[in-house]
Write a structure and sequence with these properties.
The chain has about 140 residues and is mainly β. It is built from 1 helix and 8 strands, in the order αββββββββ. Strands 1-2 form a two-stranded antiparallel sheet. Strands 3-8 form a two-stranded antiparallel ribbon. The longest helix has 9 residues, at about 10-15.
Length: about 140
Amino acid sequence: MRLHGRFPVGLAMALVLLGGAGAARPGRAEAGGPTPGPRAQLNGKGHHHPRPYVNPFYPPPNQNVHAAPYSVIPPRPVPVAPASIHWVPGHWVERWVPTFASVPVWGPAHHTRDGHLVPGRWEHQVVETGGHYESVWVNGHWRR
């Protein structure tokens, strides 16, 4: 079965997973008998059972795994260039100046923790009502 001169992807993957569709692997052919694919193993009755998935990065917990020996390499000193200090000339900047106003607000009546009644009343509250930008001169200075 060919599609445009290539194997279908499913068939190609099946051949790869089954080890070349029954081709004998070196070292097993001498023992005689067919060799199962890499994902199957024969039980005593000749039935194929899939092997459990094995993650190559995390070994099973029943294997005795030892960490590879390692060495500690101390960090080398890194030469650091002196901080560059440069002169920033004087210049104009724009600064926001907010404006505020005091407005009357009604404070509703409420009871204190002692149970006393505080009657409702008018109070003054300061609110930001806008603002404007003003020009400010910044003197020249040294900056890192």
